């Protein structure tokens, strides 16, 4: 049923439940697991132009975090004999997730939710919600452990 599974991650604790679910699905369906980390550059920084070394250093650090996060998940997958492809991109998270899903011809996207509600959700938005609303393929949302 699922040959290619996409797991977008930001490396945060609430996504651990999604990692567990994606690994289980990939193992059950003998599927390839695609792990994606998207670095979201700021759209504008007051007084800062392109090539600002502080911003470049920040983005480079976030990319390093992305590689570390995707490598860690790939290691977990390897221990379970799950074929894995890892990618780190810079861009708009929900757009890049949907683009990657299309490019890799994935069958399902497995995403964690942060469980924000009310004002926090309105102010911070939701990448998962945007992906669910615009995806042409199924999106399995996994809530973090309610005890956390």
UniProtKB/TrEMBL annotation:
Q: Name one Pfam family in it.
A: Usp
Q: Where is the UspA domain?
A: 1-143
InterPro entries, per database record: Rossmann-like_a/b/a_fold (IPR014729), Universal_stress_UspA (IPR006015), UspA (IPR006016)
What PANTHER family does this protein's entry cite? STRESS RESPONSE PROTEIN NHAX, UNIVERSAL STRESS PROTEIN UP12
Q: Which family does the record claim for this protein?
A: Belongs to the universal stress protein A family.
UniProt name for this protein: Universal stress protein UspA-like protein
Q: Which organism is it from?
A: Halococcus thailandensis JCM 13552
Q: What is the lineage of its organism?
A: Archaea, Methanobacteriati, Methanobacteriota, Stenosarchaea group, Halobacteria
